[in-house]
Amino acid sequence: MTGWSRPIKALLFAILLVGIAGLGDRRRSRALFTTQVTNPSSTFQVGTLRMSNSRSGQALFTTSGAADGVATSTMSVVAASGTMAYVPGPVGAVSPNPLPTDTGFQVSGSGGVVPGMVLVNSVTIGNIGTLAAGAVNLSVPSITVTNNAAAHCDASNALVVNGVDTCGLGRLTDVMRLTAFYRPTNTQAVCVVGSAAPGTVVNAVSDGEAILGCGSAQPSSASPTLGVPLGIPLTRNAAGLAGGAFALASSTAPLTITSATTSGDHIEPALTGVPVWNFRNGAAVRDWAAGETRAITFALSIDPIADNRYQGARAAVDLKWDSTSLSGA
Questions:
Q1: Highest-scoring range by mean pLDDT, 50-54, 204-208, 273-277
Q2: Rounded to whole angstroms, how far apart are CA atoms 86 and 117?
């Protein structure tokens, strides 16, 4: 600093001291900015797949033979709540059995089922969980048949075939046919079980038309006036011929036929895992949205040409519903 005046030197020295002092106290020279964001806890809950059944734990049909006799307008069936029974048409009638229409011939009295009778009842099945169902299926896991010839057969109604009285020894399921459907609109029905393929949409303005459309009743050479039985058989014989001649019961002890039975009388395979198609936008689809329900009507018909070998016979049929979620849901 040679040549500088004393006042200038003093000023520069003072500035230098202030700068050094500032370096020694960082708190006075530093500004700190902070910020943060938070993602709150992510919560997961598994969806549910649940089914509802309006008759859960209850029979769809329950009939008992409280009285014998010919089916007339004064006879009815002691049946499960909601069941309607329709008796055969008059002998020689051109049309098939009367079915539920505005002029249907409904029975009113007491008695068991008779040849040609049609029993009708409904159950509401639904997907009430939070997940869409990829499929809803119907199966018949087992059928129990019981014969009681001694209580119903005597000299007045014996049926002798090849020298043997067969009265009461026929298995009832060989003359029982099943049809099931639901009506999504006032003019259509979707077939669930019947001669028509599951998911077939037929025109029907009444339950009777839906039963005929899905059961495909047509006159036959064996029964030209009453028509063939409605729907599909519950069992078929060892030869695999649906509706063929079944073996007579060898005893009156109950016989349980399961869907796994591979010999003798067994459940028709079509009643194992039958897809219940859903109706959406005018077409049948497999998936059921959460909260969707359908009132499915069952019609159980008895072959109009059933003879005395089925008198007193009983049958108990189980229905099983199951569903699976959409793939990947």
A1: 273-277
A2: 6
Whether the predicted pLDDT of 262 surpasses 90: no
For residue 198, the model assigns a pLDDT of: 93
CA atoms within 13 A on the CB side of 28: 8
Half-sphere exposure of 228 (CA within 13 A, CB side): 16
The rounded distance, in Å, linking the Cα atoms of 255 and 132 is: 39
Query: Within a domain: residue 33?
Result: no
Question: Residues 105-141, buried b or exposed e (16+ Cβ, 10 A)?
Answer: bebebebbbbbbbbbbbbbebbbebebbbbbbbbbbe
Distance, in Å, from the CA atom of 71 to the CA atom of 91, rounded to the nearest integer, reads 12
- d(CA 4, CA 19) in angstroms, rounded, equals 21
Using CA atoms, how far apart are residues 282 and 47, in angstroms rounded to an integer? 29
The total domain count for the chain is: 1
Banded pLDDT at 216 (limits 50, 70, 90): confident
Residue 284 domain boundaries: 51-325
The candidate with the shortest Cα–Cα distance to 55, out of 126, 119, 107, 110, is 126
Cα separation of the two ends of the chain: 86
**CA count, 13 A, side-chain hemisphere, 325:** 12
Distance from the Cα of residue 239 to its chain's centroid: 28
Sign, CA dihedral 248-252-257-263, equals negative
CA–CA distance, 233 with 210 (Å, rounded to integer) = 18
Does residue 318 lie in a domain region? yes
One-letter amino acid identity for 264?
Answer: G
Domain assignment of residue 178, yes or no: yes
